[in-house]
Amino acid sequence: MTASLVTDELEHLDDVEVYARLQAAQEAVGRDLVRDPATLARGLDAKYRPRPHLTVISEALVGLERGDYNRLMIFTPSQVGKSTMVAEWFPFWWLCLHGEDRVGVTSYSDDLAIRRGKTIRRYIAEHGREWGLEILAGSGAAHDYELTAGGGVRSVSIGSGLNGFDLNVLVVDDPHKDRADAESPASGFRDVDARVLNAPTAGHIGTLLVTARR
């Protein structure tokens, strides 16, 4: 349908009907954007360029949300866009679909985890209203904030600040600083596994996503 035909059709409608059609079109676009995290990122960030491996990761994340599995581990080389997809766009995408859920993002350092939390917060502030997401008034902490829909985000380093918090989704992004840290007996993956999965809150985690550099 050409633009001129659409204009001619709208001219025969009253303002209420035009507004209703525009609203319906906007909602359709919104539903299309949240079909997967990669589509959402591409639609909201003009600079985002999904590569084939990120499309595969995005599809795996959809399976996680759909309930095909409730644990997912992703291993990639460093600097390939994994963390941006998994620890930033994925939590925002999940909240767009489940605004009542609590999402945790953790990493080997507070600085890294908080940076992820700040980015998610910015996505919510800039784009969230389209999906009913708004930061709760007075929820000002960069690492811990709540949404008016009931959900929220908490971002801290592994082993700190998660005990006692019920989470629907936990993203563990880069649990180790480097290879030496990963291979250290004092800080091996089994230690991370114990600190995360055996924490008091673990029984309330519905979905766990772990990513690491290879």
Main features:
about 210 residues; alpha/beta; 6-stranded mixed beta sheet; 6 strands; globular
H/E topology pattern: HHHHEHEHEEEHHE
Please give the order of strands in the largest beta sheet: 1-6-5-2-4-3
Residue share in helices?
Answer: 40-55%
Overall pLDDT metric: 78
Judged by helices, strands and strand pairing, the structural class is alpha/beta
Distance between the ends: 49 Å
Global Rg: 20 Å
Annotation, overall tally of beta strands:
6
Strand content: 15-25%
Describe this structure in words.
The protein is of the alpha/beta class and 214 residues long. It has helices at residues 3-11, 15-33, 37-44, 52-66, 82-97, 110-127, 179-183, 189-197, and strands spanning 71-76, 102-107, 144-146, 152-157, 169-173, 207-213. It has a 6-stranded mixed β-sheet, covered by helices on one side. Strand 3 and strand 4 form a beta hairpin. The protein is globular, with a radius of gyration of 20 Å.
Task: Describe the structure concisely.
The protein is an alpha/beta fold and 214 residues long. Helix content is 46%, strand content 15%. The chain contains 8 helices and 6 strands; from the N terminus they run ααααβαβαβββααβ.
How are the elements arranged and paired?
Layout lengths: L2 H9 L3 H19 L3 H8 L7 H15 L4 E6 L5 H16 L4 E6 L2 H18 L16 E3 L5 E6 L11 E5 L5 H5 L5 H9 L9 E7 L1
Parallel strand pairs: 1-6, 2-4, 2-5, 5-6
Antiparallel strand pairs: 3-4
Helix pairs in contact: 3-5, 4-5, 5-6
